[in-house]
Amino acid sequence: MSAAPDLETALLGPVLADRACGDCVACCNVLTVDTPDFKKPAGTPCSHLTSKGCGIHAVRPHICRTWFCAWRRIAEMPDDARPDRSGLLVSLNFVREPRNCLEGVSINVRKLDGSDAIENGMAKAILDSLCDRLVPVWFSDGSRKMLMHPETDVARLVISGDPAPAHLEDEVAAWRERYAAFA
Question: Does position 181 have pLDDT exceeding 90, yes or no?
Answer without folding.
Answer: no
